[in-house]
Amino acid sequence: MSDYAVLTRDLHKSYRTRHGRQVAVDGLDLRVPRGGVHGFLGPNGSGKTTTIRMLLGLVRADAGRIRVFDHTVPRDLPEVTRRVGAIVESPAFFPAFSGRRNLSLLARAIGTPQVRVDEVLEATGLLDRGGDRFKTYSLGMKQRLAIAATLLKDPELLIFDEPTNGLDPAGIHEIRGTMRRLADEGRTVLVSSHILAEVEQVADTVSIVGRGRLLASGTVADVIGDRVGAVRVSVPDPDAAAQVLAGAGLAVRADGQALLVEGERDPGRITWLLGTQGIWLRELVTVRPGLESVFLELTSGQGLPTQPGMTPPAPGMAAVGAQDTAPPAGHGDGSAR
Amino acid sequence: MRLLDAEIRRFHARRMLLVAALVGLAAVGLALYGTYSVTRPLSADQRAAAEQAYAAELANWEEHGDERIAQCLDAQALDREQSGDATLDYGCEQMGPPQEEWFVPSAPPLGAQLSGSLTGLTFVLGFLALLAGATFTAAEASSRSLSTWLTYEPRRGRVFATKVGAAGIGVVLPAGALLGMTVGGAVAIFALMGAPTTLTADGFSPVPDVVGRLLVMTVLLAVAAAGLGLLLRHTLAVLGLAFGWAIAVEGILGSAVPRLSPWLVLPNVSAWVNGSSDYYVPQCTVSAQGTACDYATHTLTMTHGGIYLAVLTTLLVTVSALAFRRRDLA
Ligand SMILES: Nc1ncnc2c1ncn2[C@@H]1O[C@H](COP(=O)(O)OP(=O)(O)OP(=O)(O)O)[C@@H](O)[C@H]1O
Ligand SMILES: [Mg+2]
């Protein structure tokens, strides 16, 4: 048994469109460890949904390999499907049927006893609205119904594709709690998002993708936590402080009344540098990079879209190991199937 | 089996089926009204008028009957002489006094009436089967709930077969109920009106056969429509294709080139349901007097119609199944 719930190797997919072929996934190597929450991060259009559809057999890969729980997908999907619950993009059910009837049909299709329907409705707080038509549900209720539907299978792997899209803060909080709870029960949760903040609180590990490729992966701390974007410092005399910090070799720029100090991982050193000069801090805040800046940093100057080579990992971070992503010579479609 | 069970339940729970059943009920109501009108006794006025007309004709015959027979025989003799054909027969011996039932109508035999009512439902049943089958699959293909379904049962071959199969099985009950109401209703009306309720149909297909063949047609159409629904993903596309074909190919091209009839859907449906169907191919000869056209009658047999419908359905379903197996789903 491998340690990974999901493994993809050199996965490729392009769609036929009116303007030719649109590359969606371009040699993706994704590894989702068993257990815990894995964040699947990337900007809009980076191929997250396409990848998830390929994992589920809804979309056929052009090339590459997919393993889910050590089974080859799509070949072994019948063995795998029961162990995987998924919500792809917005929840889609029969709009004119009630939530309960939708679940009841799914339960019947997979041979789950009908009593389970009310149990999962109860578990997701939908019991009293179960008789209403799906199309009358609010977004949050649709999302909960979709989670209820995945629970009909008692899955070991849950795949949520941007589950918090359109939810209010309470809804987001609730979904996060649900994901955490599912992971704590020993399941694996794969959650895609384009918002780092949404995932970093709940994810144990993350993969960052851009234009259909893996840019970085590892624990949240490895990938993001180490990369302090900047430290913001408020002092009575910004000019004097700027001189001190610049003298110590740090990049400093003004940010309103405060200073932004870049390139220092340890805020304590800033405190010490200033303190020894008699400059006392009013405030010191580490500014954590958003996904956007991590992403920009990961892709900056790499010629990402056109160059078929890998993205070298940024120094000091647990980016993808070189041996994992170095593509074979003459790399292209059809190389692995 | 569970999958098929779930799909049939879904088929029967759809509101579209209810709407279709109501339309079907209206059509059955019309058919039964037709049955009622032929069994309804005449009003006193109508009866008096009919009897009066009969009496007048009878009197006329009594006065001029012999004269007419003589005229007939004369004309026959003249024609025989002119043509030199002594076997020409004008049928003058069969001329006789008018019969009362020519003027005072009575109910046709139940079997004949029912065969007419049932085959009259062909178009409505066919349309409803098309609608029910196409919406069953197209609605979910366009609403993405099909993708959700596939994350529970990823074997596309099975998913396809159970959906298309459920459409075919699912229409049996409602269509059977509508046909049953037509038959039961007609028998009840005949009985209430005091007309004989023996189910013989002189010169018509026996009623159980017609019911059976209508059901087969309904099932085949629902299956084909469900397959097309998955292929085209929109109910309107399926209906547009069906009606576009019916008008452009069957209507316009078919009437311009009658020879095509054996390969068209509507003549074959008619042959299957009615037991046979005739089409007429003009055979024109050009002579000194101009062009003279005769119409040669050709008959499509019931077997031809049945095989045609089965093969057509199989073809349509196979094409959509192949497309469905390979397709990327949103
Ligand atoms: N059915 C399709 N036909 C054509 N192109 C598609 C299709 N689906 C996705 N794409 C294209 O593939 C690329 C990846 O899309 P995908 O939906 O996988 O991205 P994503 O990471 O899920 O984005 P988002 O965060 O916006 O959901 C995009 O350029 C998109 O336009
Ligand atoms: Mg997406």
Describe the structure.
The complex is a heterodimer of chains A (337) and B (330). Chain A is α/β, with parallel strands linked by helices. In chain A, 31% of the residues lie in helices and 26% in strands. Chain A is built from twelve helices and 15 strands. In chain A, strands 7-8-9-4-10-11 form a six-stranded mixed β-sheet, with helices on both faces. In chain A, strands 1, 2, 3, 5 and 6 form a five-stranded antiparallel β-sheet that branches. Residues 301-337 of chain A have low confidence and may be disordered. With 330 residues, chain B is mostly helical. Chain B has eleven helices and two strands, in the order H-H-H-H-H-H-H-H-H-H-E-E-H. Chain B has helices at residues 2-13, 15-39, 44-83, 110-120, 122-143, 145-150, 156-192, 207-232, 235-256, 265-274, 302-326; strands spanning 276-287, 290-301. In chain B, strands 1-2 form a two-stranded antiparallel ribbon. In chain B, helix 4 runs antiparallel to helix 7 (156-192) and helix 8 packs antiparallel against helix 10. The relative contact order of chain B is 0.12. The A-B interface holds A 15, 53, 56-60, 74, 77-78, 81, 84-86, 88-89, 91-97, 101, 105-106, 108-111, 149, 153 and B 2-3, 5-6, 9-10, 13-15, 139-140, 143-145, 147-155, 326, 328-330. The complex binds adenosine-5'-triphosphate and magnesium ion. Magnesium ion binds next to helix 1 of chain A. Adenosine-5'-triphosphate binds at residues 15, 17, 22, 24, 42, 44-50, 162, 194 of chain A.
